[in-house]
Amino acid sequence: MSTRIRVGIDVGGTFTDAVAVDAATLDLVGQVKVPTSHRHEDGVAHGIVGALDRLLAQVDRTPADVTFLAHGTTQATNALLEGDVAKVGLIGIGAGAGAVLTRRLAALGKLELTPGKKLPLAYAHVTDPFDTDAVRAAVTRVLEEGAEVLVATEPFGVDRPDGERAVLDAARSSGLPTAAAHEITSLYGLQKRTRTAVVNAAILPRMLATAELVDSSITKAGVDAPLMVMRCDGGVMSLAEMRRRPLLTVLSGPAAGVAGALMQERISEGVFLETGGTSTDISVVRRGKVAVRHATILGRASYLNALDVRTVGVGGGSMVRVSDGKVIGVGPRSAHIAGLPYACFATLDELRDARLATVRPMDGDPDDHVVLDAAGGRFALTMTCAANALGRVPEGDFARCDQEVARAALRPLAERLGTDVAGAARAVLDAGAERVRAVVDAMVKDYRLDRKTAVLVGGGGGAASVTPHLAAVTGMEGRIARHNEVISPIGVALALVREQVERIVPGATQEQILAVRAEAERAVVAQGAAADGVEVEVTVDPQTSTVRAIATGATELRTQDRAHRADDAERLDAAATSLKTPGARVIVLAGTDAYTVYGTEVKRRLRTARRPVRVVDADGVVRLGAPDARVETTTVGAAGEALAALVRDATSYGDGGVRAPAVRLLVGGRIADLSGVLEPDALLALARSELRARAADEPVVAVVEARA
C-alpha cells in the first residue's frame, strides 16, 4: 500500500473537514471533522492544524507522507458578506480625457457591502505617474484617510502597464500591500477592471495575515509539501499566488464540491447538486470541464472567473409548508435555522402521540410551516424525513435513519393531506424537487447538455433528499457521489493546479495565440505543477478578440494503480448505454492505451447519416461524447499532414466567415481539446504545440466535428 497521501481541508463556517486520499489510487483513506477555530488567536489556522494532526493519527501517517496539501476557505466570501474589509487607497492616473475616466472611479466607494455599509475607499489622482513627488503626495493623502492597501489604475493599463508599475514603485516605501489593476486582470474595461482590483485589495490584508499563520503552522507541523489554496474555478493555486490575488478564493466553497465530483466521480457531462441542510448549489460539468463565467461581486459584474453555481433554498433540513390540505412549498426556512430537530432522527417513543401543528419558525416567516408536537418535544418535518420514508436514502448514507421512524413522522401529515405515508412523502419531495428542477432545466438549456447522456450527481450531507427524487421525476440518470458528505474536502485534495490567462488581441496571430498558451503553461508550472502533465485549453473568441488559455496540472505525475479496470465488454456497455443504442450496433473506431473510441450510425431520411461517437477511458467512464464526428488514427510523426487534411475537409465557409472544425486529440493519457479555436491555421499550430515533445511513432486519435 502506498504511504503517500494527498490531504484536502475544507474550512466551513461551523466545521473544518479534512480528508486523506491515497496518492496512488486516489481512494479515500481517512476523514475527520473539527470545529472551525474563528475565535482562536491563530484564527482558522489553528483548526486546520488540529484537523491535520487528527487525520494523520487516524490514518497512521507522518507529515513526511503528505505529498499534497490544500485547503479551501470561506474567509474571503465571508469578509465581503460581513463587510469586514480593509480601506483601499486608489491612485488614479491620467491626463486630459484619461483624467475624466479615472476620477469617476472614486464612485467605487459607493459600492454596498452590507445594508448601510459601503466599500471603504480613498481616492487620489496623479497626472504623471513618473513624477515621483506627485505620486508620493497622492499616497500620503490616501494614507491620511486611513488606507490599508494601495491600488494603481490607468486607462489602457493592460497595453501600457508602465504607468501603474511606476506608481507602485514610488508607493512601496509606505510599507502597505500594493496591486496594479493590470496584474489582477488583463481584460479591457477600465471600470470593471478597476472594480475587480479594488475588491481584491479590500480583502488582501486579512487574507495575507491568514496565509502567514496557516503557512507557518503547517511548516511547524513538519509538512514539506507546498500549501495550496482552493480557487473559485475548481482548481488550486499556490500560496504565493493567493497572496497576490486573494479574490480568487471568493465563492470557492461550491467549487470544491464540483471538483470532487469531477475528479472522483469522473463526470463527463452532467449536473452536480451539492445539498446541505438549507440549500442546494447547482453547477454544470460539460465535456469533462466545470462551467465557469465572470462572477457578480457586490451586485456588479467583475472579471473574476468563478464556477457558474446557482443556489436554491432547498436542502435536507428544509421545512414543509401546508395550506388548505396541500403541500404548498418546501424551504427556504430550514430546521437548523429554526432550532428544531428532524422528526425522522427521533425515536418512536419520542414521536408518541404526535400531533401536526403549523408555526411561524422565525419572525417574518409565514405561519404555515408544519411541526410535530409529540411526547419527546417539537420536531420539524423535512425533506430528509420524506426521503427516508420513501426509502430513497441508501444504506450507510450520512442522512439515513430508521425507515419505520420516518414513516411514523410522516403519518400525521398524510392524515392532513388525505393520503397515505408514501403519498405525503412524494408530495414533500415533489415540492422541493420542483424548485431545483427549474434551475437544472435552465442550466441544461444554457450549456446545451444532452439529457440522454447527462447525469445528475448529488453531493453534500443532504444529497439523498434531492438528487434521487429529481432523477425519478426528470427521467435523467442520477446517483449520489461516494463519500458525499465530504465531497468538498475530497475535491480540495484531488484538485489540479489551475491558471487562466486572458488577453484582448484583435486579429490574433498564431504566434500571439501560442504566446498566451505558453504563459498559462508557465504559470501552473511555476506554482508546482509537473511540466510533463500540464494540459492547456485555448479558446479564441473572434467577436470579442479574446484569447483565453486555461492550464491545469498536478503537483506530481499521478499514475492511478486501481485494482479494477473495465474490460472490453464493460467499456462497450458504457458506450452503448450512452449512445442509447444496442451493443450489437456499436463498433470500435480507434483506441490508445488510455482510451477506446466507439461509434454507431444513425440513418436519417434524405440526409447524410449521423455518426455519434463516445470516448471511454480504462475505468469504463465516458469521457467525451460527440453527436456527429469523424475519427482518424495517425502518429505524431504523420499528424501534421493528416490533421491538415482533416481540418481542410471539415472547415466550413459562410457569411459568418471561416469556421474550423472542433478537434480533440487523444494522445497518451490526455485528451487535448482544441475546439475553442475557429481559425484553421491557428488550430493546426496549436496541434503541433501539443504534439511537439512526443515520440514520432506514438499513436494519435483525432475526433473531428464539423461546425454548422
Write a compact overview of the structure shown.
Helix content is 32%, strand content 30%. The protein has 708 residues and is an alpha+beta fold.
Protein traits:
19 helices; 6-stranded mixed sheet; alpha+beta; 708 residues
Q: Can you describe what's shown?
A:
With 708 residues, the protein is of the alpha+beta class. 32% of the residues lie in helices and 30% in strands. The strands form twelve sheets. The protein has a six-stranded mixed β-sheet with strand order 3-2-1-4-11-12. Strands 13, 14, 15, 18, 24 and 25 form a six-stranded mixed β-sheet that branches. A four-stranded parallel β-sheet has the order 8-5-9-10, with helices on both faces. Strand 27 and strand 28 (546-553) form a beta hairpin. Helix 13 packs across helix 14 and helix 18 packs antiparallel against helix 19 (680-691). It is globular. The mean pLDDT is 89.
